[in-house]
Amino acid sequence: MRRSSFRLVAAAAAIALAVTGCSSSSDEAANEDTEFEIFTWWASGGEAAGLQGMIDVYSAENPNTEFINAAVAGGAGVNAKAVLQSRLDANEPPDSFQAHAGMELDGYVRGGQLEDLTSLYASEGWDKIFPSDLIKTLTVDGKIYSVPVNIHRANVLWWNPATATKAGVTKAPETLDEFFADLEKFKKAGVTGLALAGKGDWAIAHLLDWMLLASMGADKFEGLYNGSTSWTGPEVAAGLKNFQKALSYGNKGAGNLDWPDAGKLVTSGKAGFFIMGDWASAQWQSDGLKLGTDYTFAAAPGTVGTYQWLSDSFTLPVGAPHRNAAIAWLKVCGSQAGQDAFNPKKGSISARTDADLSKYDDYLKSASADWSKDRLVGSTVHGVMGNNALMAKYNAAVGKYFSGGSKDNAGLAKDLAAAYEAGKA
Length: 425
Fold this sequence. Notes:
The chain is α/β, with parallel strands linked by helices.
Protein backbone atom coordinates (compact mmCIF):
# COMPACT_ATOMS: atom_id res chain seq x y z
CA MET A 1 0.00 0.00 0.00
CA ARG A 2 1.34 3.38 -0.93
CA ARG A 3 1.60 6.03 1.76
CA SER A 4 -0.16 9.25 0.92
CA SER A 5 1.28 12.02 3.07
CA PHE A 6 4.31 13.81 1.74
CA ARG A 7 6.49 16.86 1.75
CA LEU A 8 6.55 19.07 -1.30
CA VAL A 9 9.74 18.69 -3.29
CA ALA A 10 11.15 22.04 -4.33
CA ALA A 11 11.14 22.77 -8.05
CA ALA A 12 13.89 24.47 -10.01
CA ALA A 13 13.83 28.25 -9.75
CA ALA A 14 13.40 28.74 -13.47
CA ILE A 15 11.69 26.56 -16.05
CA ALA A 16 12.66 27.13 -19.63
CA LEU A 17 9.93 25.21 -21.37
CA ALA A 18 6.20 25.59 -20.70
CA VAL A 19 4.24 22.46 -21.53
CA THR A 20 1.32 23.26 -23.84
CA GLY A 21 0.04 19.79 -24.67
CA CYS A 22 1.31 19.66 -28.28
CA SER A 23 3.85 16.83 -28.22
CA SER A 24 2.95 13.17 -28.68
CA SER A 25 4.27 9.89 -27.39
CA SER A 26 5.16 6.86 -29.44
CA ASP A 27 1.95 4.91 -28.76
CA GLU A 28 -0.57 7.55 -29.81
CA ALA A 29 -1.87 9.04 -33.04
CA ALA A 30 -3.22 12.47 -33.90
CA ASN A 31 -6.67 13.14 -32.52
CA GLU A 32 -9.11 12.43 -35.34
CA ASP A 33 -11.94 11.39 -32.99
CA THR A 34 -15.15 13.30 -33.55
CA GLU A 35 -16.30 13.12 -29.94
CA PHE A 36 -14.91 12.81 -26.43
CA GLU A 37 -16.75 11.96 -23.20
CA ILE A 38 -15.46 12.74 -19.73
CA PHE A 39 -17.06 11.72 -16.47
CA THR A 40 -16.97 14.14 -13.54
CA TRP A 41 -19.02 15.33 -10.57
CA TRP A 42 -18.48 18.99 -11.46
CA ALA A 43 -21.99 20.09 -12.30
CA SER A 44 -22.41 23.62 -10.96
CA GLY A 45 -20.81 26.73 -9.46
CA GLY A 46 -17.06 27.21 -9.45
CA GLU A 47 -16.50 23.55 -10.32
CA ALA A 48 -18.41 23.83 -13.58
CA ALA A 49 -16.83 27.21 -14.34
CA GLY A 50 -13.35 25.84 -13.80
CA LEU A 51 -14.00 22.83 -15.98
CA GLN A 52 -15.33 25.09 -18.72
CA GLY A 53 -12.07 27.01 -18.66
CA MET A 54 -10.17 23.82 -19.41
CA ILE A 55 -12.77 22.74 -21.98
CA ASP A 56 -12.21 26.03 -23.82
CA VAL A 57 -8.49 25.28 -24.10
CA TYR A 58 -9.25 21.75 -25.32
CA SER A 59 -11.81 22.91 -27.88
CA ALA A 60 -9.41 25.48 -29.30
CA GLU A 61 -6.83 22.74 -29.85
CA ASN A 62 -9.36 20.11 -31.00
CA PRO A 63 -12.07 22.05 -32.90
CA ASN A 64 -13.45 18.97 -34.67
CA THR A 65 -14.07 16.96 -31.51
CA GLU A 66 -17.43 17.26 -29.74
CA PHE A 67 -16.93 17.55 -25.98
CA ILE A 68 -19.40 15.55 -23.88
CA ASN A 69 -19.41 16.14 -20.12
CA ALA A 70 -21.23 13.25 -18.47
CA ALA A 71 -21.34 14.92 -15.06
CA VAL A 72 -23.25 13.36 -12.16
CA ALA A 73 -23.97 15.87 -9.42
CA GLY A 74 -23.33 15.06 -5.78
CA GLY A 75 -20.92 16.33 -3.14
CA ALA A 76 -17.41 14.87 -3.25
CA GLY A 77 -18.42 12.56 -6.10
CA VAL A 78 -20.35 10.07 -3.96
CA ASN A 79 -23.15 9.69 -6.52
CA ALA A 80 -20.82 9.85 -9.51
CA LYS A 81 -18.53 7.08 -8.28
CA ALA A 82 -21.42 4.65 -7.99
CA VAL A 83 -22.54 5.34 -11.57
CA LEU A 84 -18.96 5.18 -12.82
CA GLN A 85 -18.31 1.82 -11.22
CA SER A 86 -21.41 0.37 -12.85
CA ARG A 87 -20.16 1.56 -16.24
CA LEU A 88 -16.69 0.14 -15.67
CA ASP A 89 -18.14 -3.18 -14.54
CA ALA A 90 -20.22 -3.27 -17.73
CA ASN A 91 -17.14 -2.51 -19.88
CA GLU A 92 -18.70 0.79 -20.95
CA PRO A 93 -16.09 3.29 -19.76
CA PRO A 94 -16.09 7.00 -20.57
CA ASP A 95 -13.05 8.27 -22.45
CA SER A 96 -11.65 9.78 -19.25
CA PHE A 97 -12.90 10.09 -15.68
CA GLN A 98 -12.10 12.15 -12.62
CA ALA A 99 -10.43 10.44 -9.65
CA HIS A 100 -8.64 11.77 -6.59
CA ALA A 101 -4.90 11.33 -6.31
CA GLY A 102 -3.85 8.86 -3.65
CA MET A 103 -5.38 5.61 -2.48
CA GLU A 104 -8.63 6.20 -4.38
CA LEU A 105 -6.82 5.23 -7.59
CA ASP A 106 -5.72 1.85 -6.27
CA GLY A 107 -9.02 0.07 -6.74
CA TYR A 108 -9.23 1.08 -10.39
CA VAL A 109 -5.62 0.08 -11.01
CA ARG A 110 -5.88 -3.26 -9.21
CA GLY A 111 -9.03 -3.96 -11.21
CA GLY A 112 -7.13 -3.48 -14.47
CA GLN A 113 -9.34 -0.55 -15.45
CA LEU A 114 -6.71 2.14 -16.15
CA GLU A 115 -3.97 2.54 -18.72
CA ASP A 116 -0.40 3.32 -17.69
CA LEU A 117 0.45 6.97 -18.51
CA THR A 118 4.15 6.87 -17.69
CA SER A 119 5.24 7.43 -21.30
CA LEU A 120 2.97 10.47 -21.55
CA TYR A 121 4.65 11.95 -18.49
CA ALA A 122 8.02 11.54 -20.20
CA SER A 123 6.91 12.98 -23.55
CA GLU A 124 5.14 15.97 -21.96
CA GLY A 125 7.84 16.67 -19.39
CA TRP A 126 5.44 16.24 -16.46
CA ASP A 127 7.97 14.14 -14.60
CA LYS A 128 9.90 17.39 -14.18
CA ILE A 129 7.04 19.89 -13.75
CA PHE A 130 4.87 18.10 -11.15
CA PRO A 131 6.30 17.68 -7.63
CA SER A 132 7.88 14.24 -7.48
CA ASP A 133 6.09 13.24 -4.30
CA LEU A 134 2.74 14.19 -5.84
CA ILE A 135 3.58 11.85 -8.72
CA LYS A 136 4.17 9.09 -6.14
CA THR A 137 0.52 9.30 -5.08
CA LEU A 138 -0.48 8.64 -8.71
CA THR A 139 1.90 5.70 -9.03
CA VAL A 140 1.25 2.00 -8.45
CA ASP A 141 4.04 -0.55 -8.88
CA GLY A 142 6.21 1.99 -10.69
CA LYS A 143 3.56 3.07 -13.23
CA ILE A 144 1.72 6.41 -13.28
CA TYR A 145 -2.04 6.23 -13.78
CA SER A 146 -3.54 9.73 -13.83
CA VAL A 147 -2.83 13.41 -14.52
CA PRO A 148 -3.38 15.85 -11.60
CA VAL A 149 -5.10 19.11 -12.46
CA ASN A 150 -5.01 20.84 -9.05
CA ILE A 151 -4.33 20.88 -5.34
CA HIS A 152 -7.18 21.62 -2.92
CA ARG A 153 -6.93 22.42 0.77
CA ALA A 154 -9.48 20.66 2.98
CA ASN A 155 -8.75 22.27 6.37
CA VAL A 156 -10.02 25.83 5.85
CA LEU A 157 -12.04 27.93 8.29
CA TRP A 158 -14.48 30.36 6.64
CA TRP A 159 -16.49 33.15 8.26
CA ASN A 160 -18.35 36.39 7.58
CA PRO A 161 -16.38 39.40 8.93
CA ALA A 162 -19.52 41.39 9.79
CA THR A 163 -21.05 38.49 11.71
CA ALA A 164 -17.81 37.91 13.59
CA THR A 165 -17.62 41.56 14.59
CA LYS A 166 -21.19 41.40 15.85
CA ALA A 167 -20.26 38.45 18.07
CA GLY A 168 -17.00 39.98 19.30
CA VAL A 169 -14.76 37.59 17.37
CA THR A 170 -11.80 39.75 16.42
CA LYS A 171 -9.38 37.24 14.88
CA ALA A 172 -9.29 33.72 13.55
CA PRO A 173 -9.05 31.06 16.28
CA GLU A 174 -5.78 29.17 16.01
CA THR A 175 -6.41 26.48 18.63
CA LEU A 176 -9.38 24.30 19.45
CA ASP A 177 -9.78 26.08 22.79
CA GLU A 178 -10.05 29.41 20.96
CA PHE A 179 -12.43 27.83 18.46
CA PHE A 180 -14.84 26.64 21.15
CA ALA A 181 -14.61 29.98 22.96
CA ASP A 182 -15.62 31.74 19.73
CA LEU A 183 -18.51 29.34 19.19
CA GLU A 184 -19.78 30.43 22.59
CA LYS A 185 -19.50 34.07 21.52
CA PHE A 186 -21.60 33.40 18.44
CA LYS A 187 -24.16 31.56 20.57
CA LYS A 188 -24.46 34.47 22.99
CA ALA A 189 -24.94 36.83 20.02
CA GLY A 190 -27.87 34.73 18.82
CA VAL A 191 -25.96 33.26 15.86
CA THR A 192 -25.55 29.56 15.10
CA GLY A 193 -21.89 28.83 15.81
CA LEU A 194 -21.04 26.24 13.18
CA ALA A 195 -22.67 25.65 9.78
CA LEU A 196 -23.28 21.95 9.15
CA ALA A 197 -24.27 20.09 5.99
CA GLY A 198 -25.60 16.63 6.78
CA LYS A 199 -27.12 15.71 3.44
CA GLY A 200 -25.15 12.85 1.95
CA ASP A 201 -22.86 12.22 4.96
CA TRP A 202 -19.58 13.34 3.37
CA ALA A 203 -19.53 16.96 4.59
CA ILE A 204 -19.91 15.87 8.22
CA ALA A 205 -17.22 13.25 7.59
CA HIS A 206 -15.06 16.06 6.18
CA LEU A 207 -15.55 17.91 9.47
CA LEU A 208 -14.52 14.82 11.44
CA ASP A 209 -11.42 14.36 9.28
CA TRP A 210 -10.28 17.87 10.23
CA MET A 211 -11.20 17.41 13.90
CA LEU A 212 -9.19 14.22 14.24
CA LEU A 213 -6.17 15.94 12.68
CA ALA A 214 -6.63 18.99 14.91
CA SER A 215 -7.06 16.90 18.04
CA MET A 216 -4.32 14.32 17.45
CA GLY A 217 -1.67 16.13 15.45
CA ALA A 218 -0.23 15.06 12.11
CA ASP A 219 1.88 12.12 13.29
CA LYS A 220 -0.88 10.40 15.25
CA PHE A 221 -3.37 11.12 12.46
CA GLU A 222 -1.13 9.50 9.85
CA GLY A 223 -0.67 6.64 12.27
CA LEU A 224 -4.33 5.77 11.81
CA TYR A 225 -3.45 4.71 8.26
CA ASN A 226 -0.22 2.84 8.93
CA GLY A 227 -1.39 0.94 11.99
CA SER A 228 0.62 2.82 14.62
CA THR A 229 -2.44 4.66 16.04
CA SER A 230 -5.52 2.71 17.09
CA TRP A 231 -8.94 3.78 15.87
CA THR A 232 -10.35 2.66 19.22
CA GLY A 233 -7.59 4.21 21.33
CA PRO A 234 -7.52 7.31 23.54
CA GLU A 235 -6.36 9.71 20.81
CA VAL A 236 -9.41 9.02 18.64
CA ALA A 237 -11.67 9.08 21.71
CA ALA A 238 -10.43 12.60 22.52
CA GLY A 239 -10.97 13.68 18.92
CA LEU A 240 -14.50 12.30 18.87
CA LYS A 241 -15.30 14.14 22.10
CA ASN A 242 -14.23 17.40 20.43
CA PHE A 243 -16.23 16.46 17.33
CA GLN A 244 -19.32 15.83 19.43
CA LYS A 245 -18.88 19.18 21.14
CA ALA A 246 -18.49 21.02 17.84
CA LEU A 247 -21.65 19.44 16.44
CA SER A 248 -23.62 20.74 19.41
CA TYR A 249 -23.12 24.28 18.06
CA GLY A 250 -24.55 23.38 14.65
CA ASN A 251 -27.67 24.51 12.84
CA LYS A 252 -31.03 22.78 13.14
CA GLY A 253 -32.16 20.86 10.09
CA ALA A 254 -28.58 20.23 8.95
CA GLY A 255 -29.56 16.81 7.65
CA ASN A 256 -31.46 18.48 4.82
CA LEU A 257 -28.61 20.75 3.70
CA ASP A 258 -25.85 20.09 1.19
CA TRP A 259 -22.62 22.05 1.62
CA PRO A 260 -23.51 25.03 -0.63
CA ASP A 261 -26.66 25.60 1.44
CA ALA A 262 -24.73 25.35 4.70
CA GLY A 263 -22.18 27.80 3.34
CA LYS A 264 -24.92 30.32 2.64
CA LEU A 265 -25.73 30.34 6.36
CA VAL A 266 -22.29 31.86 6.92
CA THR A 267 -22.26 34.31 4.03
CA SER A 268 -25.78 35.52 4.93
CA GLY A 269 -24.86 36.08 8.60
CA LYS A 270 -26.95 33.23 10.02
CA ALA A 271 -23.97 31.14 11.16
CA GLY A 272 -20.50 31.91 12.44
CA PHE A 273 -17.92 29.40 11.16
CA PHE A 274 -17.77 26.86 8.34
CA ILE A 275 -15.15 24.14 7.93
CA MET A 276 -14.96 23.29 4.25
CA GLY A 277 -12.43 22.88 1.46
CA ASP A 278 -11.37 25.82 -0.63
CA TRP A 279 -13.86 25.01 -3.39
CA ALA A 280 -16.26 26.97 -1.17
CA SER A 281 -14.54 30.21 -2.19
CA ALA A 282 -15.06 29.47 -5.88
CA GLN A 283 -18.72 28.70 -5.23
CA TRP A 284 -19.25 32.00 -3.43
CA GLN A 285 -17.43 33.98 -6.09
CA SER A 286 -19.62 32.37 -8.74
CA ASP A 287 -22.56 33.63 -6.67
CA GLY A 288 -21.16 37.18 -6.87
CA LEU A 289 -19.68 37.40 -3.36
CA LYS A 290 -16.39 39.18 -2.61
CA LEU A 291 -13.43 37.59 -0.85
CA GLY A 292 -12.42 39.76 2.11
CA THR A 293 -15.78 41.52 2.26
CA ASP A 294 -18.53 38.90 2.27
CA TYR A 295 -16.32 36.12 3.62
CA THR A 296 -12.75 35.48 4.69
CA PHE A 297 -10.53 32.55 5.65
CA ALA A 298 -7.81 31.04 7.82
CA ALA A 299 -6.25 27.63 8.39
CA ALA A 300 -8.73 25.61 10.44
CA PRO A 301 -8.08 25.73 14.21
CA GLY A 302 -5.61 23.21 15.54
CA THR A 303 -4.05 22.76 12.09
CA VAL A 304 -2.19 26.02 11.56
CA GLY A 305 1.01 25.03 9.75
CA THR A 306 -0.57 21.83 8.42
CA TYR A 307 -2.02 21.55 4.93
CA GLN A 308 -4.62 18.79 4.56
CA TRP A 309 -4.65 18.25 0.85
CA LEU A 310 -6.39 16.48 -2.01
CA SER A 311 -5.93 16.52 -5.75
CA ASP A 312 -8.33 15.96 -8.64
CA SER A 313 -6.90 14.06 -11.58
CA PHE A 314 -8.00 12.52 -14.87
CA THR A 315 -7.42 9.01 -16.15
CA LEU A 316 -7.34 6.95 -19.35
CA PRO A 317 -9.64 3.94 -18.89
CA VAL A 318 -8.82 0.66 -20.57
CA GLY A 319 -11.12 0.38 -23.57
CA ALA A 320 -11.80 4.13 -23.89
CA PRO A 321 -13.88 4.44 -27.10
CA HIS A 322 -12.09 7.61 -28.22
CA ARG A 323 -8.58 7.02 -26.97
CA ASN A 324 -6.79 9.67 -29.01
CA ALA A 325 -9.29 12.33 -27.98
CA ALA A 326 -8.72 11.25 -24.39
CA ILE A 327 -4.96 11.59 -24.72
CA ALA A 328 -5.45 15.07 -26.17
CA TRP A 329 -7.59 15.89 -23.10
CA LEU A 330 -4.95 14.60 -20.71
CA LYS A 331 -2.36 16.81 -22.39
CA VAL A 332 -4.55 19.85 -21.74
CA CYS A 333 -5.09 18.70 -18.13
CA GLY A 334 -1.36 18.64 -17.54
CA SER A 335 -0.53 21.84 -19.40
CA GLN A 336 0.15 25.24 -17.86
CA ALA A 337 -2.54 26.80 -20.06
CA GLY A 338 -5.12 24.23 -19.02
CA GLN A 339 -4.38 24.42 -15.30
CA ASP A 340 -4.25 28.22 -15.19
CA ALA A 341 -7.61 28.35 -17.02
CA PHE A 342 -9.11 25.83 -14.61
CA ASN A 343 -7.83 26.48 -11.10
CA PRO A 344 -8.60 30.18 -10.49
CA LYS A 345 -12.26 29.40 -11.20
CA LYS A 346 -12.29 26.05 -9.41
CA GLY A 347 -10.83 27.55 -6.23
CA SER A 348 -7.67 25.44 -6.19
CA ILE A 349 -3.99 25.89 -6.92
CA SER A 350 -2.13 24.39 -9.85
CA ALA A 351 -0.48 21.00 -9.49
CA ARG A 352 2.36 22.36 -11.64
CA THR A 353 5.29 24.23 -10.18
CA ASP A 354 5.19 27.01 -12.80
CA ALA A 355 1.68 28.45 -12.36
CA ASP A 356 1.09 32.08 -13.28
CA LEU A 357 0.05 33.33 -9.83
CA SER A 358 -1.01 36.70 -11.25
CA LYS A 359 -4.18 34.89 -12.37
CA TYR A 360 -4.99 33.68 -8.84
CA ASP A 361 -6.79 35.56 -6.05
CA ASP A 362 -5.43 36.41 -2.60
CA TYR A 363 -6.72 33.20 -1.01
CA LEU A 364 -5.10 31.02 -3.68
CA LYS A 365 -1.82 32.92 -3.46
CA SER A 366 -1.89 32.31 0.29
CA ALA A 367 -2.67 28.64 -0.25
CA SER A 368 0.18 28.33 -2.75
CA ALA A 369 2.60 29.79 -0.22
CA ASP A 370 1.36 27.45 2.52
CA TRP A 371 1.57 24.43 0.19
CA SER A 372 5.27 25.11 -0.27
CA LYS A 373 6.10 25.28 3.45
CA ASP A 374 3.44 23.56 5.59
CA ARG A 375 3.37 19.98 6.86
CA LEU A 376 1.37 18.12 4.24
CA VAL A 377 -1.22 15.55 5.33
CA GLY A 378 -3.68 13.80 3.04
CA SER A 379 -7.46 13.94 3.24
CA THR A 380 -9.37 10.80 4.15
CA VAL A 381 -12.76 11.82 2.77
CA HIS A 382 -11.28 12.92 -0.57
CA GLY A 383 -9.30 9.85 -1.45
CA VAL A 384 -5.72 10.48 -0.41
CA MET A 385 -5.53 8.33 2.73
CA GLY A 386 -8.11 5.72 1.81
CA ASN A 387 -9.57 3.94 -1.20
CA ASN A 388 -13.23 3.95 -2.25
CA ALA A 389 -14.10 1.07 0.05
CA LEU A 390 -12.70 2.87 3.08
CA MET A 391 -14.30 6.19 2.15
CA ALA A 392 -17.74 4.65 1.65
CA LYS A 393 -17.74 3.00 5.08
CA TYR A 394 -16.13 6.02 6.74
CA ASN A 395 -18.86 8.33 5.40
CA ALA A 396 -21.57 5.85 6.33
CA ALA A 397 -20.21 5.53 9.88
CA VAL A 398 -20.25 9.29 10.36
CA GLY A 399 -23.71 9.57 8.80
CA LYS A 400 -25.05 6.91 11.18
CA TYR A 401 -23.55 8.76 14.14
CA PHE A 402 -24.87 12.16 13.07
CA SER A 403 -28.39 10.98 12.25
CA GLY A 404 -28.48 9.10 15.55
CA GLY A 405 -27.99 12.25 17.56
CA SER A 406 -24.18 12.24 17.85
CA LYS A 407 -24.19 10.25 21.08
CA ASP A 408 -22.39 6.93 20.61
CA ASN A 409 -18.70 7.86 20.43
CA ALA A 410 -17.49 4.35 21.19
CA GLY A 411 -19.71 2.95 18.46
CA LEU A 412 -18.40 5.49 15.97
CA ALA A 413 -14.81 4.57 16.82
CA LYS A 414 -15.55 0.89 16.18
CA ASP A 415 -17.26 1.72 12.88
CA LEU A 416 -14.28 3.83 11.80
CA ALA A 417 -11.95 0.95 12.65
CA ALA A 418 -14.12 -1.31 10.49
CA ALA A 419 -13.91 1.23 7.64
CA TYR A 420 -10.12 1.14 7.83
CA GLU A 421 -10.14 -2.64 7.69
CA ALA A 422 -12.49 -2.56 4.68
CA GLY A 423 -9.96 -0.40 2.88
CA LYS A 424 -7.24 -2.99 3.44
CA ALA A 425 -9.26 -5.85 2.02
